[in-house]
Amino acid sequence: MADSAALxxxxxxxxxxxxxxxxAANFNISSFGILETYKTPSVIFGYALPLLEMQISLIFVLIxxxxxxxxxxxxxxxxxxxxxxxxxxPQLIDLVDFSSxxxxxxxxxxxxxxxxxxxxxxxxxxxxxxxxxKRAAFQTGKRPIVIAVSSFVLTMVxxxxxxxxRIDKVDPLYMSxxxxxxxxxVIVSIQAITLLPVVTHLIHELKIPNSELGRxxxxxxxxxxxxxxxxxxxxxYIGTYRYVSPRTANRDAAAMIILVLVIIxxxxxxxxxxxxxxxxxKSVRKLYLYGTIxxxxxxxxxxxxxNQIHVLGAFMVGMAIxxxxxxxxALEAKFESLATNVFFPISIAVMTMKGDIIGVLYAFxxxxxxxxxxxxxxxxxxxxxxxxxxxxxxxTRESIIxxxxxxxxGFVDLCFIExxxxxxxxxxxxxxxxxxxxxxxxxxxxxxxxxxxxxxxKYIGYVKRDxxxxxxxxxxxxxxxxxxxxxxxxxxxxxxxxSSPLNNENKDKGVIAVTVLHLVKLAGRxxxxxxxxxxxxxxxLLQNSYIQTMMLAFNEFQQENxxxxxxxxxxxxxxxxxxDQDICNLAFDHLTSMIITPSGRKWSPDGSYESDDVMIRxxxxxxxxxxxxxxxxxxxxxxxxLKINKRSKGTVxxxxxxxxGKDDWEAVxxxxxxxxxxxxxLTVIRFLSGQEPDKSKNWEYxxxxxxxxxxxxxxxxxxNFSYTxxxxxxxxxxxxxxxxxxEENDLMIxxxxxxxxxxxxxxxxDWMELPELGVIGDLLASKELETRVSVLVVKQQQQxx
Length: 801
Known about the structure:
By secondary structure, this protein is of the alpha/beta class. The protein contains 29 helices and 13 strands. The strands form 2 sheets. An 11-stranded mixed β-sheet has the order 3-4-2-1-5-8-13-12-9-10-11, with helices on both faces. Strands 6-7 form a two-stranded antiparallel ribbon. Helix 27 links the parallel strand 10 (680-688) and strand 11. Keywords: Ion transport, Membrane, Potassium, Potassium transport, Transmembrane, Transmembrane helix, Transport. Belongs to the monovalent cation:proton antiporter 2 (CPA2) transporter (TC 2.A.37) family. CHX (TC 2.A.37.4) subfamily.
């Protein structure tokens, strides 16, 4: 070191030895580079910033390296974060050139990293609180309350009954007899709680936030979390009162009550005030965003000072922030990526690197009862969660999944474990074992849940829910989906055609029950929420101009068709790649016969092509695969003739191309509903190949004829109905015939799929732009088609075995 000091310029710091160098890490922030000394380049790690940079770099190198392999077997990233921490822990002292006092255990060298980790966990927990929808979490009936109380109380009470079991056998060298019951209390408490931020994170990892199962799990964890908070306050008060002083216990309890009151009466109203003063469509001022973050950090410092877990204050402030736009979504957009992808991995790795796996092996006999207690409470809580699910008549598979989720452990559990270690309520061996338990828990349980959960199971159709099989006096229940403002006009135009005034001909016909679902891409929420638009809706939501426009348009449509049409409106906040589940949930719950959704292809007012929305098309593909009823995809070019109302005297020409198959049967059934509208002129065109039908599929051919014969016999004498047949041979002939039909009609209704042997589609399949519309639908929605015709592509409900 003396040689290196002699080589250094006069302004460089002179370091007498390496020990002083490393001890100066807290005082010397930046080094002068790796060439500060040629003989010992590692001298740069005696400075805080290079040391912190190296620690963070090693953490992410190990995370990426481990997850590179674990992701192929479906292991969550959270496991990779913990593995990186274990690899950086004491067990690798002999495997790396860097000593543990620099990277893992040295308090001076680790101070900056600890600070980053604490701040990262505060940020992440705060954002999880912001994203959580409080109204949905706590308003789902008594089922989640009963399951939450059962899982928490039974686990806590029964586990505590074993707290003093064989307590006299504890080795005093391992832990004093006075602290051993406290250690077991910590273990039972951690096992009994199911924390809302942890379950919310898991639900998103599993991609089931808007499933009924995911929402139930969120609700159960919310009530369990509430019980855990009450238990934490009581245990903390009793422990402080007994082992510290009554004065400190009373002070801490009063401080927490004050914090709760401040959050309810100051922070929450202030956040709501920010939401109210922010103009619609405008961004929240940065001053408010940074002020909100600093409030969360201050609350965490406050709870830490009064002997509570540091993330508690941040989470409580996050729960006080109104979810959704503008404030919640702005906080997520600005801080989510940094907190989730940078700070969160560092926090998990830093907490885990304190574990000593070798120490667990040496102290195995001393912690054997703790290991038994963890396993016993795990089984106990699983049973206490599973049995109430069965009592509430949940399917067995879903009950197993709920019980699994209730036993899941994650990042907040690690904070509790670390806090117990810092307060000397856990031995280091038990701390390491609990870290290993969380690691295995986080790796195994999500994998089991993924294997058990099948999102399609809920929508299996044992009952026919389509238009074709509706009775003559049944209501036609339709779910219409809106993604953008330009979808409103086309949907209402189509519904106008389906509705008709009451007369002697259709006096016994059921009404059209329309459910309007406005889909909004999720921002600033932890899980999706479905908002009904009625008198109970929040005023803030109704101030949205798009939602107001939608409601006014459909209310006017209902008034124009009073007595024959009913309208209910909803807004679903959802993740774009999970919107299909929200649509299916609503259709399933409302016993819908048909879902009508826009195609995603946008047209300008003059009928020219503008763009394709990939997200909407992806949603439509998922709906076609799993919808619980029939589905229609509407490609509307905004034809002015389709915009009819009760004062209109014009005629709308509706054409149906019939080739054969279930989807065409459904298309004809929809056309029959439209035919009852006096403004509709219906034309059915049947395409025939001119060949004898396949005898193995003769039953479908018979149904084809039966459907058409019923249509012709019903409307044979009607002036506004016509039926023609055309012999079509080859792909070019199909294209020509479809274009001719498009030029003669304002709206075309076609089935999506047809019997492959019924017509020769040579070359057409290979050139489809929109495969979700089928061959004929793709031709009618083509950019090259020089007409203003709109097309409704129909797929009948799939029946599952």
